[in-house]
Amino acid sequence: MADRLSLDHIDILQTLGTGTYGRVRLAYMRDRNQFIALKILKKLEIIRHKQVDHVISEHSILQMINHPFLVNLLGFTQDNRYLYFALEYVPGGELFSYLRNLGKIDNVQTRFYAAQMTLMFEYLHSLNIVYRDLKPENLLIAPDGYLKLTDFGFSKVVEGRTYTLCGTPEYFAPEILLNKGHGKPVDWWTLGIIIYEMLAGIDPFNDEDPMVVYQKILKGKIKFPRGFDKGAKSLVKHLLVADLTKRYGNMRGGVNDIKNHKWFASIDWYKLRQREIEMPYRPFVHSPDDTSNFSNYPDSATQTSSISPRDDPFLEW
């Protein structure tokens, strides 16, 4: 269980990322001599966008999880205006930025990253947690080159099916678009999307018009660029299957159908889980508070503004 935070012991520093409901800032916990990522969410915005259940779910899931490839919750607190999640700071930046800078990632490195995502989902699904929002923006690169999954805002404990429409359009599984109810198989679909995206430099159903994206997803026709690795192509085809009875990860063999696929033949799953394999890329990090791998954001002028007594949407936890 994460500790209750005391803001009196925290120095809030520069912004690492922004979102609809707040921002993530680098912070320093003086009492622990530790740099953290402090997720600061505006209560009014959460209530206005009817996201209270999602935020409560995120908090409870962060308290449940403990895995080397998932960002850890270190503490939580709130005041009249904001919720504060103290999270492990991962200074290597987002996989999104790394992928955009390179254009695409080679087969060996993509395989290591995809194997880590497979272990992330294997663990989360063992707790009946469906993640629902895998994308390069939500994967951080640690100094040793391993990935850390962050942002559990769309995650949910689901034993059967759920019907909430959430996620990112290019990564939606067909069953989400068809409102048939969805569960753990949506995560395996997104794994297929991100493997394709890392190797091709673009997602398989890409279009500027979201409606065209949805049509492409439902048609399910995937064009692979020349030079796309044959083993990766085979696995992607087994993951991007609309028929849930035929989608890898959701068949009788479960996650082992994925882990035993020929593309992963060179992966030592135990050593990977123990972080004993040297990663092909390690980000340059010169200090524990290095933010050079993140984009620069202007500081929020509203962060310190006052709130009137009647605008006090206190969320109870």
TrEMBL record:
Can you quote a single GO CC term? cAMP-dependent protein kinase complex
List, alphabetically, the InterPro entries matched.
Answer: AGC-kinase_C (IPR000961), Kinase-like_dom_sf (IPR011009), Prot_kinase_dom (IPR000719), Protein_kinase_ATP_BS (IPR017441), Ser/Thr_kinase_AS (IPR008271)
Disordered: annotated segments? 290-317
Asked if the Swiss-Prot or TrEMBL record annotates the protein with the keyword Ion transport, the reply is no
- Where the record annotates domain AGC-kinase C-terminal, the positions are 265-317
Which UniProt keyword terms apply here?
Answer: ATP-binding, Kinase, Nucleotide-binding, Serine/threonine-protein kinase, Transferase
Q: Which stretches does UniProt call biased (Polar residues)?
A: 290-308
- Name the GO terms of the biological process aspect: anatomical structure morphogenesis
Specify the superkingdom: Eukaryota
Similarity comment text for this entry: Belongs to the protein kinase superfamily.
Please give the name of this protein: cAMP-dependent protein kinase catalytic subunit
**Taxonomically, what lineage is the organism?**
Eukaryota, Sar, Alveolata, Ciliophora, Postciliodesmatophora
